[in-house]
Design goal:
There is one protein chain. By secondary structure, the chain is mostly helical. It folds into two domains: 2-81 and 151-236, no CATH class; 83-150 and 239-250, no CATH class. It has helices at residues 2-6, 10-34, 43-79, 83-88, 97-110, 119-124, 126-143, 150-189, 197-206, 209-227, 230-246. Helix 2 packs parallel to helix 8, helix 3 (43-79) packs across helix 8 (150-189) and helix 8 packs antiparallel against helix 11. The mean pLDDT is 88.
Amino acid sequence: MSNFLAAFDAYSLKARIYPALLAMLPLILAVITIFPAVISINLSKSIILTLLLLGLLYLMSNLARFRGKLAEPKLLERWGGWPSTILLRHRDATIDSYTKARYISVLAGMCPDLIFPNPNEESAGFEAADNIYRSATKRLIEARRGAEYKMLHDENIQYGFRRNAFGLKPVAVALALFSALAIIAMWVINFNSSLAPNNIWEKLSSDWHLPALVIFDVCWAIMWIVIFSEQFVLRGAYEYAVALLRTLDAS
C-alpha cells in the first residue's frame, strides 16, 4: 500500500486519494467486521485482496476527481466566477484598491497583450473584463508552478481536496449508510435468541463493537453532509486565490 501511495505526487495523493480513502473507510471497516477472515488469509489470497483494494481505491480516486470537476462549473456559476477573477474586479472590495492596483500593474507587465479595464470600462462590459482577468490569472498560474511556491501549491491541494470531497459526498454518504445497514443485517441474521429485552441487551453487550460501528457510520455520513459543504469549498477557493495573487508582490 505504501508503495502504491508513493507513486502519486502530493496533489494526487492528498486531493484525490485521501477523499477516496475517507469515503471507503466505513465500507472497509464493515467488510472486516462481517468477514473477519480477510485479515488472516494466506499470502496468495492477501496479494489478490490487496490488488483488488488498490484497484478499488484507484477507481474511487478517479471518481472523486470526476465528480469534483463535474460539480465545479455549477459552483462557479453560483459564486459568480473564479475567486481569482472576482478579487481583481474593481467592484469587489475584498482586496483594498491600492493592493489591487499593484496586482493589476504586475499582471499587466506579465501580460503585455492584455489591456486591463478601468472601473468605468469594467462596468460597461463585465464579461469582457472577466475574460481579461481570467486570462491573466491563467498565465500567473502557469508562472507559479515552480517548487519555490510551496505554500501556493499547498493551498491548491487543499482546494482540490475540498472540491473532490464535495463532489464525492453523495457516494460517501451512501457507502456509510450502506455499511451501517449491512452490519445491522448481519447482527439480525446471527441473532439466535428470542427478542426479549434481556436477550437483546445481552447480545448488544457481548457484541458492543457492532452498535458502536453503526453509530460511527451514521456519524460519518453526517460529517460528510455537514463539513463538506459548498461553503467549505468556497473558502478553500478564496484562500487559494488570495495566495495566488499575493505571489505578485514577490515578482
